[in-house]
Specification:
The chain has 237 residues and is α+β, with helices and mostly antiparallel strands. It has helices at 46-53, 113-124, 136-144, 167-184, 201-204, 229-235; strands at 31-34, 56-59, 68-74, 81-87, 91-95, 131-134, 155-160, 188-194, 197-200, 211-215, 218-222. The strands form three sheets. The protein has a five-stranded antiparallel β-sheet with strand order 4-3-2-1-5, with helices on both faces. The protein has a four-stranded mixed β-sheet with strand order 6-7-8-9. This is Malonate decarboxylase holo-ACP synthase.
Length: 237
Amino acid sequence: MAPDITRACALPPWTANAPVTPDGRWRAHDLLKLRRLPELPGEPAWVRSAFARAPFAVVRRAESAAGFVAIGVRGAERNARYGTWAEAADIEAVIAPEDLAGMLPTIDRAPYPVYKILNAVRQTRCLSAFIWGPTGSAGFELATGLPTVTSSSDLDLLVRTPTLLSMDTARALLDELTAHATRAGTRIDVQLETPAGGVALAEFASTKARVLARSAQGPRLVADPWATAEAHAQEST
């Protein structure tokens, strides 16, 4: 039987009546260096070896009880991703995407298309007005030093947009980043971090009336990712 590398997520390790409590010390896409990783029932076999190679996990968008944080463990295979929970007391370091924006890969890794486009984005300063950084395979490799990027890897970027982003600015940014990706021979996936959650830049820059915003409470369609929580509640009714 082939090893289980596709199981989605562990069951929460707290009691059903425990209240969930947001913790602002870490945000989605932050990389956490962990002292240990609790083993929960049903965990795929590859998780232990992946954590032994690099004791890091990424913060994912899910609600957690006090003392826990929702994380994703990354395996060696492209589809080896596992959602689980870490204990807050086991977090040794937090690395945000923007902490990696200025980091360079090792010389032997620099020729990969992902790093070519990342370097081009830095040099042209098309994101100079924003707080941003790499996520995905490039972010993981830069943070851990573990070779993760391949020749077919996309570049994933997180751009923090706490205030309204005009449609003209969004489209201009998408066009410029897409042009860089085309020249580098790869693809780019940009996520805007808005008050409503994570929103794909490509989707926001389109003509859709609503866009998908991903938050700890789950995905939902919103007309304005910068609207108040009350307005979003009215949209969904």
